[in-house]
Amino acid sequence: MTSLHKNNQVNQLDAVVIGAGFSGLYMLYRLREAGLTTRVYEAADDVGGVWYWNRYPGAKCDSESIYYNYTFSEELYKEWTWSSRYPAQPEILEYLNFVADKFELRRDIQFNTRIQSAEYDEESNRWFIHTKDGETVTAKYFITGVGCISTANVPNFKGLDSFKGEWYHTGHWPHEKVDFRGKRVGIIGTGSSGVQAIPEIAKEAGHLTVFQRTPQYSVPAKNHLYSKEYIEEAKANFHENKKKVRASLGGLPITPPDKSALDDTPEEREKVFEEAWEKGGPYLLFSYSDLLANEEANETVSSFIRSKIHEIVEDPEIARKLTPTYYYGTKRAILDTNYFETYNRSNVSLIDVKQAPIEEITENGIRTTDSEYELDMIVFATGYDGMTGSLFNMDIRGRDGISLKEKWENGASVQTYLGISTNGFPNMFMITGPESPSVLGNMPVAIEQHVEWIADCIDYLRNHEKETIEAKVEEEVAWSNHCRELADSTLYTKVESWYTGANIPGKAGGFQIYVGGYGPYREKCEKVAAKEYKGFLMQS
Ligand code: N01
């Protein structure tokens, strides 16, 4: 600790929050309400988090909008009106701006500021937080709201620097409109981002070449404008809906029937799947209780979607290339608008880069092991270093200078208690951290639960004159083991995905998400709080 720090010549705050997305905005609101001096640091020049950065064509959320928002304020809920079932990114960003304006949040947010490091000082029981520009602040509470999927993964292809055309990653899309007209565009990646962007880019591009490594299941979103009556009903049912989503498994008011897919005859199942397909959205995955637990049950829904792909795609060879084989739902279940239909267009081609991998980016395009594709533009829809990527981007050091990255061995042995706290890092809280259920559902619901739990916990500490709180080692070991055991009882861990870290070369650690569902997780967290933060170590 430098003498500058010791002399306390730095700005002293009660709390510092990193990120001004859904998490940071609400955390700021709650801490301010509780009377804490709080500052949010945000790398972008405005609020929004992922919705600030993900401006790629077709970007939409995949949870129905009337549930994809805050529910902490009935007034806010009733003042805002969503246009459609799955609104596009600009509308979601507008919503977050509306929230920031309504609660005058911007005055406590420092924009254009990236946090480089944060270290805990045992003598003062404070966090010293350093920005990339050299500013230091101290805070009693250090809270990360950095998102689970916000550190872009641009694969380290040989030759990218030599490419003469434009290239973009979906998660860092420019503010200005990208002009695809007449251009030869290549897109790498067919996850949620690629599947949304491909139909939109294809409408404009001269030619679109899709470089696909793993074919994906996708289900029609069946997006549509909301009627006035539907919105009125949602607003009238605010309390009931709020209760339902908070108790649900995935943050949406959908309860899977307590029935195995194998209990129905093929004809009955076909009817159930067909109805879910027609409704659009996430219903297919919730058609039966065991689609994510039992291989045979999963095959029933997986083969249903495969047959849909073959119905939609006219060229049987392209349909074959687009046919996924992994267990449906073990990667994020994707919703689309005309994704498979796009492959019927004459200006779209599909390249299987599993069969012939990308060798390098050349100055003119992409070269795979069997061909070179000339391109004017490359879009990387290649995803994120999920769960730990954004935490490790900061050099976070706890007691005795131990680094979070080293403690978790670069992600290979993540250990948290409830995904919120980790031993050795007192008064540090992670909103939707690894080993929380967050990314397996409708994020704002997960975020609100974490923010409220953290705010209540800080309230408790202040009321009981506790200086610090951190997870006990034995509790985090137990929690991490519990998370792994639960995950291993499902099909999630049998498939490589960003959930397992397999998308990042060299990243180990496996599946670091609590799969037990939002509602049961909320109950666990509430029990811990009710038992005076059982499992946590507190110092007076
Ligand atoms: O990223 P992804 P994403 N060579 O990791 C391919 C959320 N989200 O940005 O499957 C060739 O899913 C990779 O191939 P493979 C949502 O939670 C939500 O699409 O690894 N290809 C894959 O096809 C989602 O799950 C929304 O074989 C390479 C693709 O790139 C998460 O964000 C919208 C490659 C990456 O897919 C991430 O989605 C968008 C390489 N070297 C995102 N490296 C909505 O709410 C990677 N790929 C709707």
Q: Note the main sheet.
A: 8 strands, mixed
Give the amount of beta strand, in percent.
Answer: 15-25%
The residue ranges in which pLDDT falls below 50 over 5 or more consecutive positions are 1-8
**What is the typical, i.e. mean, pLDDT?**
96
How far the N terminus sits from the C terminus, by CA atoms, comes to 23 Å
User: Radius of gyration, rounded?
Assistant: 23 Å
Total E-strand runs: 20
Helix content: 25-40%
Coarse shape: globular
Quaternary structure state of the chains depicted: single chain
Class derived from helix and strand content: alpha/beta
Structure description:
This protein has about 550 residues and is α/β, with parallel strands linked by helices. About 30% of the residues lie in helices and about 15% in strands. It has helices at about 5, 20-35, 50-55, 75-80, 90-100, 190-205, 230-235, 240-245, 265-280, 295-310, 315-320, 340, 390, 405, 445-465, 475-490, 520-530; strands at about 10-20, 40, 110, 115-120, 125-130, 135-145, 165-170, 185-190, 205-210, 220, 335, 350, 360, 365-370, 370-375, 375-380, 395, 430, 470, 535-540. The strands form 5 sheets. Strands 1, 2, 3, 4, 5, 6, 17 and 18 form an 8-stranded mixed sheet that branches. β13 and β14 form a beta hairpin. α2 packs parallel to α15. The longest helix is centred in the last third of the chain and has 21 residues, at about 445-465. The chain is globular. The model is unreliable at about 1-10 (pLDDT under 50). 3-acetylpyridine adenine dinucleotide (N01) binds near residues 149, 193, 194, 498 and 503.
